[in-house]
Batch of 3 targets.
Target 1
Amino acid sequence: MPKNTIPALSQKTKRQTPVKGLTVPDTAITLHTVKISPHAKKVNVINLKKSKKAKYGGYTAVPSQEFSALKKIIEDKFDELSHSYDDKLKSALKGLNKNKDAARLHVASVIADKVKGFFSQFSTQNIKEQLSSIALWATSTEVDEFGLDPIFAAKAKIFFDLLYEKWWRIETIGIQNLPTTGRALLVSNHSGGIPIDGAMIVTSIFKEHPAKRITRPLVEDFAYYMPFVNSFLIRTGSVRASQENAERLLEKDQLVIVFPEGLKGIGKPYKYRYQLQRFGRGGYIKLAMKTRSPIIPVAVVGAEEAYPIIGRIDWLGKLFGAPYLPMTPFFPLLGPLGAIPLPTKWYIKYGEPIDMSRYSDEDIEDDILINKLSEQVRTRIQEMLMEVLKQRKSIFFG
Amino acid sequence: MGNKKKNNVKDKPNVKRIAITGVNSFIGSNLIRRIANDPRYQIIAIDTRKPDFLEKNIKFFKVDLTEPMIDAAIAGIFKSEGIEEVVHLAFLSSPIKDTTISHELEVIGTLNVLHASTAVKVKKFVIRSTSMVYGANATNPNFLTEEHPLMADPRMAYLRDKIEVEHLVRRFRDKNPQAVVTVLRPCAIMGPTVKNFLTSYFASPLILTILGFDPLFQFVHEEDVIDVFRVAIEDNYHGIFNIVGRGILPFSTVLKLAGKVGVPIPYPIAYSMVSMLWSANLSPVPPTFLNFLKYTWLADGAKAKKIMKFESRYTIKDTLESFMGSQRLRELRLVE
């Protein structure tokens, strides 16, 4: 092979930018022996050999002289060619050996394309476009006011769907208790070391409810200090648990999930499973009263066994910005593998809505009433948990 | 001649006599250009250096707000000119290293202007603050309303001064029930001509970000900010108002739309890096500002929309585009 070869020409390039109006298969024509004399102003096509393999000919070009000269000639030629491109090519394709001029032109134009194509990949414009398309992968340029990114959430949903259908085989009970329109405050038990029950409730409502409603879970503060976790939560639609945020969402007639057990729920040891912890300070009752939202009790069964907590490692958790690292029989003993939650069978039960519109604004200030109502909701969820647990025969098979 | 003119103005009941401090600042210079020829206003300009764009009908007073006993001098000017309204804009747009100077200018300067305003019993006091005073905290609600406590990290001298100014203004408001006190808290100001620490942060092609954090961002276009000050002068709006642009975006998307490459660095490393760059005059902000790249600090513009009828004309994308467009011209040295 001669010294000054164009890399793009000497190899069979697999990917090639298609030329307008030309539908030659990539492999049909390989350029073989095109010699360019440096002084000549046009491309001399010498020694066109017909390949046995390709239907249309199959030629390969080997350039013999300087590369810059070639490039210049080709570029000059290219514009000229492109005008009569379609016609000439048609005839070229009809019979390459009959019409030698057309064949020459065709070969020259293919060289021109290859050269141009080869150089265009290195143009700054192209590199910038490539980079930005990589950068914008799985992100949209619009988010809602709480940072929910629809494209990112759709990608995450594939993963959550898999967990929902295949890993935990979740069954939903009483989905008809959720309103098709309008606001509601969902109150659920919380569990599982890694609090993924919120995501599963969201998935369940989106999949099973006829209105395909989007639910916004309220998440504890600590998650917002954790790198990566915080941005993942925001993009997938979680909202930091605060009175202001919840009020704003409910005023917009959305479904909101709260976990009044909070951190105590996530970290409760295995032996206390399905025993509801204290329900915060009743902030969610005030919220429901203020926004006149019905409360829908939710019981999640199965999640509390998915990640059986037998201990906590506080100092390791602090490293990641979390309050503690949950210890299970498998984690951290088996390393990251041990962090995979167990494939238990889950049930999500939605209870009947509790009407809160009968309370007036003065009742919000009545702390004893708030506490009483909170306790009632807690008892209701505890009952629902027990009902489902009674019917369940196996942790893993339901 | 001057006296005669002044007396003429004083006789007209419909002409508001307004003092604007810090006319060399970005908002000050643009605002005064907009309202200079408005027959409803008679304006005096106050700054340490006389700007070259002043119209002939505007009187200029060279005043250094940090000098001792300057409050009496300002009160004298206000009295002789019959000032009824004060627009206080003499603030720093970016943090500076010498925190003593910045404290003197921002806090003591404001205190002096407030003293003078109290002395002449002004009818209106408009002051520029920033939505950064709420601070960037993980526990912030998604939208910070005007009632939210000012929780900016006290290690940030720049914002500590701004918060102190807010407290001074609140005291002034209690002391002067006759005055309409308008506090405007614009969020990050962006646009083709404004220069502040944010635009210099966005000027470089590689942008430092914090690894694993991607807060939501909002900007307000410079035109909107100038406009809202004009509106605040025109009508009476008593209270504090957040001034924000339309739309929010995650910081990563902001960078992508601006064609910048984000360089994510873990927070502790970024902190020490920026503190070194800050002491070498290579960073526009001290490292304490990195919290604004970690946590969301969106201000809620609902109050300004409801009461001032202020609605931004620019979406966040328009704002970014206008900034980037002028940035490109600046790189080609076609504009200053």
Note: Residues 191 and 266 of chain A are 4 Å apart (CA to CA).
Target 2
Amino acid sequence: MGCSSSVPSKSSGLPGGLNSDNGGMVDAKNLRVKLVLLGDSGVGKSCIVLRFVRGQFDPTSKVTVGASFLSQTVALQDSTTVKFEIWDTAGQERYAALAPLYYRGAAVAVVVYDITSPESFTKAQYWVKELQKHGSPDIVMALVGNKADLQEKREVTVQDGIDYAEKNGMFFIETSAKTADNVNQLFEEIAKRLPRPSPS
Amino acid sequence: MDASSSSSQSLTFYDFLDRMRNPASLDLVRSIKSFIVSFSFSTANPENDGKRLQDFLLTMEASIRDHPLWDGASEEEIDSAIEGLEKYVMTKLFARTFASSHEDAKIDQEISEKIHLLQHFLKPEHLDIPEVFHNEASWLLAEKELQKINAFKAPREKLLCILSCCRVINNLLLNASMSENRVPGADDFLPVLIFVTIKANPPQLHSNLKFIQLFRRQEKLVSEAAYYFTNLVSAKTFICDLDAKSLSIDETEFEENMKRAKLAITGARMGPPRALHETAALVNPLARMCDKATQNELSPILDEIVGLASQSDPGPSQGMEGSETNISGGLPYPFMEAEAGELTIEDVEKLLGIYKDVVKKSSNGRMKNDYKFMTLGGCCYPFTETEAGELSQLTIEDVV
């Protein structure tokens, strides 16, 4: 039908700089970061995010709670803040071809799998390869093994996760959205790894 | 989503026009006028046009920041001035920039026809939408929001239609999940949006998305707005590429359903007149002609009526109704939701009456001055002196 490319790429011919797609930073002390969530349907992507957003206790922070878009600001020790704009993606196979529309211009990609599902781990590896081919070259990638509370059902070992992440220069962590284990650590760690604009 | 500002935004458009009327803003008015004129005279080239508009808005933003009229203005005031400017300029340049190429019109037509076929048989189960999210009332509400998209010319307002649609879906997902103790995410959102889009078959979907992408201020098409916009682009792409493999349906069953839908449509086209109205938009030759007309030359008339009668934003439906009673003092504008293709010759008389009424009101009230500014680009009210009796001489293009 020839209409898949009908909307021109966002970066083409538009003025750069101002709130550009690339992470959209506001200034050196307050970053605004586009984070895209990828992973099979059912691995708990949205649960992790909801945990993260609800788990912050700063009453002054404005929280946007949608069903699939959420934003949350974290304050770091060095008195900088990072506002994460979290773009969830549909994980079902039939929507896989649409993912580039979402990860275009993302500064961070969090690839999630379920430690009880080897299929979801294979799918995660597919996403990592996709991002390496088509994502921004300086994208920060995290590999997340979720449902760490289900130890007795584990089918993907911690070591498998570590090895794969290391080979691909990613940050790795296992989380449990259910118990909130490591959820904040995940986002804090990402915030630390973001490239900073050099103070001028 | 940016909805709380709806009512205040309609006020700020007046505020923008007010400031433009101030003699002190003559230099700005000149820049705007000269931009519109030079833009109108160059040949259409969507990508290039988008860049030109974005550059112009940035330049004007800088001028406005330095302008004595905005001395000491807050960021918010500067922002609403640029919003007003975007709305003004894009309303003026609408005919030149919206669905301006034959190719775009063709894609719109193809998508619309494909959706029309899918509407004949597609069920929520085909997209594996869980039972708990089946909610006809919410879906209908979301469809209505999406279908309003052509009632507006400003990119911001078109975008708001999309955001309103998504907000309705979000509310449905959040409410339905509450009882199920589950967390809805994109896994749930996108399928529902796709289904709603197919049910709604929004007019000129491709052209509307392209228009927003190119002409909505780039610094506003970010964050949440960008996310939901991307979802509709995504839904459109999915629908374009959709085949049996995209759905939970047997391949032969899919092919048969598509064949049957085609037959039903062509059957209706050949069939007795009473079948016509069901598929009017697709089969009625007049409707087709009008559709084309809308794509190519958008009327100054409806333009002004829409412009004057609905300064308020899309979005929550009450907002729309509010603005109607506001201006008309209770008189309804029955064509606000109408598509050019749906109009009949009989409607012309009514339309002309309302049109004159709007012009008269606008000439009496405070809008007189707005009207002056609105005509700055050379546009005027060509039919105020026309009698309904002369209608036979009007071509359908005049109505459109």
Note: The CA atoms of residues 25 and 32 of chain A lie 5 Å apart.
Target 3
Amino acid sequence: MTLYLLCFALFLVGLYGVIAKRDLIKIILSMGILGYAVNLFLVLVGYRQGGHYPILEGQNPVPVMVDPLPQALVLTSIVIELGSTAMVVALAIRLFQKYQTFDISKIRRLRG
Amino acid sequence: MMHPYFIIIPLCTAFLITFIAGKNDRIAIVLSLLATSIMLAIALVIYPGLNDRCLVYEMGNWPLPFGIALVLDSFSGFMLVVVLLLAVTSLLYSMPYLEMVGRDWKYYALFMLMLAGMCGVVLTGDIFNLFVFMEIGLLAAFALVAFGCQAEEYEASFKYAVMGTVSSTLILFGIAILYSSTSTLTMAKIAALLPDLSPKVVWGAGALLLAGFGLKSAIMPFHAWLPDAHSSAPAPISAMLSGVLIKALGIYVLVRLFYNVFGAPQLFMQIFVLLGLLSIIIGVLLAIAQWDMKRLLAYHSISQVGYIILGIGLGTPLAILGAVYHLFNHALFKGLLFYNAGAVEVALGTRNLKRMGNLIRALPIASHTSMVASLSIAGIPPFNGFFSKLIIIIAAIQADRPIAALIAMIGSILTLASFMKVQRYGFRGERAIDKVMPVGWGMNAAMIILALLCVLSSLMIVPGIKEIVLDPVVTVIAGKTHYIQLVLGR
């Protein structure tokens, strides 16, 4: 249970960063933390206390196995996160070229 | 089994374009237009035959609870037709539009990737697969919003990207909760297992998924990114985003999950009604004050999505019929309005309504089709918007919610007011304008096609046509967890 609570705390840290920070780079990092928290949650979901790796050796069955599917999901979601982080970083670079600042309170041409 | 092709064709076209069309944009145009037309033809051919059937394609021949399946029922087929119809006209429109902005084959490759994402989301029967396709579509959409390389476009795209990524994280969290309690990712299997579990699972996962997909479909408290992103994108992309992307990635998934998987829990239906009413009224109030034409249209998307969500939340078969019909109509007239705004932007170089004037002589096709679209969105009788809004309002009265009906009516009147403003200042103003930049034939063709469809689709409610076109979709949605038997029990 403690692990789940810590994982949720990490999630909240990420959410706080996205909402409260004013710096583009810090927002991008917070998005990363948010993603890590969810990935960690997925791995925790698949974990079994005292579990074995899910490979059958010979004929003797393993009593408790770790669920391998969430790990596959986490791999996929890490790749997706890589893609979206690269996209957002590229946008941040272009924004800096146009506005000469990383401060979102100064990047405000769209309003209304 | 045609439905894997809806994903294979756009993905292959996107990669073919990047390989072949390095120097020559013509190839990119021809390839993408050909691919979308073929897909539209396939979708139109298979849709009438779907009826109550549900075609399941098991990828890699893995049997269902274990493998990933593509599920094509009437609701998916209907969404495919809407998406592809708008995609074809959007590509037609893009040809001359991009020549003026600066032609680029990358645009077409990204467009096809976005299309692949949308078709994948609509077709898949696996909840994690849905997440992956959603991300493909979204990443392409972020890039397309920033395609014009102006400072405002980067700003809008960054906002959209942050919001999109946060909402995707919430969705993944919700999927993780569903998986942890059911140990499966197939939507039909989750639906079959959920009734035996504690309702807290549905509340927890439902809240996260509602927030996530609510952000994607820009329902009221989650709407902040939409006016920026949709007004900054190139006009054909605005039409795609406002017309179909928020529906395929947002509303379709909300309906599929909350009806077919969760079985329409009463709590969430009440929330849908509330959010729908909030979106209708606040969206239109924000829209009426705008002078930037595309921004005004973008705020109207929030308001019109509110009608769909209201219909979904009411939950009676009549309300669902209205919601599905309004979804189709909104895709048509909002696409058309964005095309009009793009044509004016090309011709006059401005989006500000105050700087437009009488365009009837200069841009006859754009101003006449904009009249059709304005009357449709405002709900004036012979056009399609009238019928769908009327059905939703009647359904609200029948469901014993007179206040909801009243708010929907007020929203409709305010919509009429704001489109009178568009017509008064934008297309039929006092200052006659004669000399403008010419708009290409592709743009005119796209506008004429959509205007004709706006008029013709009001026939969809006529008995006889309604049974073929709309009723199967309503059956799928109102059947709630009957979806389980359709997918698993073959």
Note: Chain A has one domain: 2-99.
